[in-house]
């Protein structure tokens, strides 16, 4: 995927960052076979983020603030049923 490797531009024409370099630095040559979760915390702070998630929550029934707060309990509630708590969790952010 060119977008994740830092090749090309995003939807508004800005050069994209190499998101795979962080994963490569953690897992090296084992990247393709490693089992892990990635938490991508987006910059949705403040009222714009709360407004967006309120709308998503109304339509989907999801927690209206969990994705902004990223508490350990919230993350565990997602990863535990998938059996992923025994594997590395990589946290990345766009800001």
Description of the molecule:
The protein is α+β, with helices and mostly antiparallel strands. The protein has four helices and two strands; from the N terminus they run αβαααβ. The chain has a two-stranded parallel ribbon. It is flat and about 40 Å long. 0% of the residues are buried.
Helix content: 25-40%
Low-confidence segments: none
Mean pLDDT: 80
The helix/strand order is: HEHHHE
Number of helices: 4
Strand order of the largest sheet: 1-2
Cα radius of gyration in angstroms: 16 Å
Strand count, sense and barrel status of the largest sheet are: 2 strands, parallel
Proportion of beta-strand residues? 5-15%
The multimeric state of the shown protein is single chain
Number of strand segments: 2
Structural class of the helix and strand makeup?
alpha+beta
Distance linking N and C termini: 22 Å
User: What spatial form do the alpha-carbon principal axes imply?
Assistant: flat
Entry summary:
With 95 residues, this protein is of the alpha+beta class.
Map the helices and strands.
Blueprint lengths: L19 H8 L9 E5 L4 H15 L5 H4 L2 H8 L9 E5 L2
Parallel strand pairs: 1-2
Keywords:
two-stranded parallel ribbon, single chain, flat, 95 residues
């Amino acid at each position: 995927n060119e977008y994740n490797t830092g090749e090309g531009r995003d939807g508004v024409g800005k050069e994209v960052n190499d998101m795979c370099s962080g994963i490569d630095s953690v897992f090296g040559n084992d990247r393709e076979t490693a089992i892990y979760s990635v938490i991508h915390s987006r910059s949705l702070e403040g009222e714009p983020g709360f407004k967006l998630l309120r709308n998503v929550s109304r339509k989907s029934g999801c927690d209206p603030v969990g994705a902004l707060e990223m508490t350990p309990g919230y993350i565990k509630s997602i990863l535990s049923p998938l059996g992923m708590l025994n594997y590395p969790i990589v946290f990345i952010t766009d800001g």
